[in-house]
C-alpha cells in the first residue's frame, strides 16, 4: 500500500489546473449506455473511479476507445448484458447509476449494491427505488439490485423526492430519458453536475428542462444519437486547493474553473480572511494574514458543499477564535476529526456540529485517510503542520483527485510517495 510522506510548514505558490468533475463523470459515463450511437466524452478526470466504470462498461459490451489522457469514445450500440459484474460494481458508489441507465435503455438492470466512501453515516437508495417504482419498475434489493420495467419500458411519472438527493435526481433522469411519456422530478438536487448530466443527455437528443432548479421535466424520446460532450471542471477539486493555500498561506492561481460554481466556497473563505480574486475562468487565492473564525453549515447546492466539509474544518483549526461546522447533508461525516486532534487541533463534535477552537499551529503526525474528502483534508493538515507527517490509506484520495501529488508538488509542496513495505525513500522529498 502507498503512503504519503509530507514535509509541511511551507506556504504554497504556483498554478493548478482543475480536472473534469468527478461527480459529473461518474454519472455521464454510465449515461452513455442510453445512447444508440458513439459518444466522444472529453475532460474526464484520470481517477480510479473512472477506470473502474470504463471496465464495467466494457464488460457490459460497450466499445471503449481511449483517445488521450482525458477523452474517450464510447460505443454502446451493442450491449450484451444488463448485469453489472459485482467485483467491479462494488468498488464505487456511482455504480448505482448503471441501474437508471440500463433501465432507461433496456427496461432491466442487475447491479450489485454500491460501495463507495463510508464516512460514518448510512447511504440509503430508497429515493432512487421510489423513482424507479413510480415509473413502473419492480425493484428487488439484495446483494444485487434487480430491476425490471413493466412491459419492458419505463413510463413517465411525477416524482416528489422526500430528500434532496443528487444520486436519485441523476438516476431518475437517466431512467426517464427514453421513457414512454414525461417525468417530472420535484425537490430535485441542483448541483452543477446535475446540470452537466442533463446537458450531456440533451446533446445526445434527450428532452430535459429545468436542471439546476428544483423541478426537472424529462420528456421521454425514442432514441439518443451519438455526439461529443466536455465535462465541467470540478468545483470540489478547486475548493480543495483553495482550502490548502488557506491553511498553508501563500498564493496560487486555480485555473479552468466556472466562477459561479465556486461562489459558496469563495464567500466562506473570504469571510475567513482569504483573498479570492476572479480572473476570467481562473481564481487567484491568497492568504497572508491571520485566518478568522467562521460558522459553516453544509447544504445542498447552492449552499456550502458537504464534500468540502472536512477540508474547511481543517482550515478552521488554524483560525483565531471559535468556529462551528454543521453537517446538513449526511448523518455524520466527522470520522476524520480524531486524526486532526492528534495533530493538536481542538475540536469537539456534538451531534452534527463540530466546535473548533483555533490553535497557532498543527503538529505533524502519522494519520490515515478515512474516505476521499477526509483524505484530502489530511493532506491539507499535513501541509500546514510544521514537520514531517505520514498519511496512509491514500487509495481513497486517489479515487477522486487526479494527480493530486503532482499538482501539489507544482505548488511547492514537499511530498513523497512510498510503498508501505519499502525501504526509506531514496528520492529526496519534494
Ligand atoms: C453524491 O452522493 C456525491 N457522490 C457525494 O460525494 C456527495 O456528498 C453527495 O452527492 C451530496 O452532494 C457522487 O456523486 C458519486 P445524496 P449521493 O443522494 O448521491 C440521503 C464525494 O466525496 N438519501 O445527495 O449518494 C442521504 O443519506 C462524495 O465526492 C436518502 O435518504 O448523495 C444523504 O443524507 C461523497 N435516500 C442525503 O440524502 C436516498 O435514496 C444526500 O444524499 C438517497 C439519499
Write the layout of secondary structure elements.
Blueprint: E1 2-7, E2 12-17, H1 22-31, E3 38-42, H2 48-60, E4 63-66, E5 72-75, H3 86-89, H4 97-106, E6 108-112, H5 126-134, E7 137-141, E8 144-149, E9 158-160, H6 166-176, E10 182-186, H7 192-203, E11 207-209, E12 215-219, E13 227-230, H8 235-248, E14 250-255, H9 259-271, E15 275-279, E16 282-287, E17 295-298, H10 309-316, E18 322-327, H11 337-341, E19 346-350, E20 353-357, E21 366-368, H12 372-384, E22 388-392, H13 395-400, H14 404-409, E23 414-419
Parallel strand pairs: 2-14, 3-13, 9-10, 17-18, 21-22
Antiparallel strand pairs: 1-22, 1-23, 3-5, 4-5, 6-8, 7-8, 10-12, 11-12, 14-16, 15-16, 18-20, 19-20
The structure holds ligand EPZ.
**Biggest sheet descriptor:** 4 strands, mixed
The number of helical elements comes to: 14
Spatial separation of the terminal alpha carbons: 20 Å
**Hetero compounds:** ligand EPZ
Quaternary assembly:
single chain
Amount of helix: 25-40%
Q: Roughly what is the average pLDDT, rounded to an integer?
A: 95
Amino acid at each position: 500500500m502507498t503512503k504519503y510522506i509530507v514535509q509541511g510548514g511551507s506556504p504554497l505558490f504556483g498554478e493548478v489546473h482543475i480536472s473534469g468533475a468527478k461527480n459529473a463523470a461518474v454519472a455521464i459515463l454510465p449515461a452513455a449506455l442510453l445512447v444508440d450511437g458513439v459518444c466522444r466524452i472529453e475532460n474526464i478526470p484520470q481517477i480510479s473511479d473512472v477506470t473502474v466504470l470504463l471496465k464495467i462498461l466494457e464488460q457490459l459490451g460497450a466499445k471503449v476507445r481511449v483517445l488521450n489522457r482525458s477523452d474517450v469514445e464510447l460505443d454502446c450500440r451493442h450491449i450484451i448484458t444488463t448485469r453489472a459484474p459485482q467485483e467491479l460494481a462494488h468498488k464505487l458508489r456511482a455504480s448505482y447509476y448503471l441501474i437508471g441507465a440500463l433501465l432507461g435503455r433496456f427496461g432491466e438492470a442487475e447491479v450489485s449494491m454500491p460501495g463507495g466512501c463510508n464516512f460514518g453515516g448510512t447511504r440509503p437508495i430508497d429515493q432512487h427505488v421510489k423513482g424507479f417504482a413510480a415509473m413502473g419498475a419492480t425493484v428487488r434489493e439484495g446483494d444485487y439490485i434487480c430491476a425490471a420495467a413493466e412491459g419492458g419500458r419505463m413510463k413517465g411519472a411525477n416524482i416528489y423526492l422526500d430528500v434532496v438527493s443528487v444520486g436519485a435526481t441523476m438516476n431518475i433522469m437517466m431512467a426517464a430519458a427514453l421513457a414512454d411519456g414525461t417525468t417530472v422530478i420535484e425537490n430535485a438536487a441542483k448541483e452543477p453536475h446535475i446540470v452537466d448530466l442533463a446537458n450531456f443527455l440533451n446533446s445526445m437528443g434527450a428532452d430535459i428542462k429545468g436542471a439546476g432548479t428544483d423541478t426537472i421535466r424529462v420528456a421521454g424520446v425514442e432514441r439518443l444519437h451519438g455526439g461529443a460532450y466536455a465535462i465541467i471542471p470540478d468545483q470540489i477539486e478547486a475548493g480543495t486547493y483553495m482550502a490548502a493555500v488557506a491553511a498553508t498561506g501563500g498564493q496560487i492561481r486555480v485555473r479552468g474553473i466556472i466562477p459561479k460554481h465556486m461562489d459558496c466556497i469563495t464567500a466562506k473563505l473570504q469571510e475567513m480572511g482569504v483573498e479570492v480574486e476572479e480572473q476570467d475562468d481562473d481564481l487567484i487565492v491568497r492568504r497572508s494574514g491571520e485566518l478568522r473564525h467562521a460558522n459553516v453549515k453544509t447544504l445542498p447546492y447552492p449552499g456550502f458543499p458537504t464534500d468540502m466539509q472536512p477540508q474547511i474544518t481543517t482550515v478552521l483549526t488554524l483560525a483565531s477564535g471559535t468556529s462551528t461546522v454543521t453537517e446538513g447533508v449526511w448523518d455524520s461525516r466527522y470520522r476524520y476529526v480524531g486524526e486532526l486532534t492528534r495533530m493538536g487541533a481542538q475540536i469537539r463534535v456534538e451531534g452534527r456540529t463540530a466546535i473548533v477552537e483555533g490553535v497557532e499551529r498543527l503538529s505533524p503526525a502519522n494519520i490515515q485517510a478515512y474516505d476521499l474528502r477526509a483524505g484530502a483534508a489530511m493532506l491539507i493538515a499535513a501541509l500546514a503542520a510544521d514537520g514531517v507527517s505520514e498519511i496512509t490509506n491514500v487509495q481513497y484520495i486517489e479515487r477522486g483527485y487526479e494527480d493530486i501529488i503532482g499538482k501539489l508538488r507544482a505548488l511547492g509542496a514537499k511530498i513523497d510517495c512510498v510503498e508501505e513495505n519499502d525501504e526509506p525513500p531514496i528520492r529526496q522529498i519534494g
